[in-house]
Amino acid sequence: MNNQKIHFRHVMLWEFKQGNSAIATAQKLCSVYGEGVISDRAVRNWFVKFRSGDMTLKDEPRMGRPSDFDDDVAKDGSSF
Q1: What does pTM read for this prediction?
Q2: CATH architecture, domain defined by 3-51
């Protein structure tokens, strides 16, 4: 998991524990890190998870076919 993702999740957990709304948290993250860095929906999904008592910050396993996409190629801009 990349460092920015985990950092955002820590910030979201902090904001949740402070009693702030998901929308306000998304707006704060976008104002600090750039517009569109995270969606309102993504923050709301994390807040639902926190509200249920699950405070883990790891990705949950997903159903479906694993991705064949190479993140390293995308990062350095190399063509396929």
Answers
A1: 0.73
A2: Orthogonal Bundle (1.10)
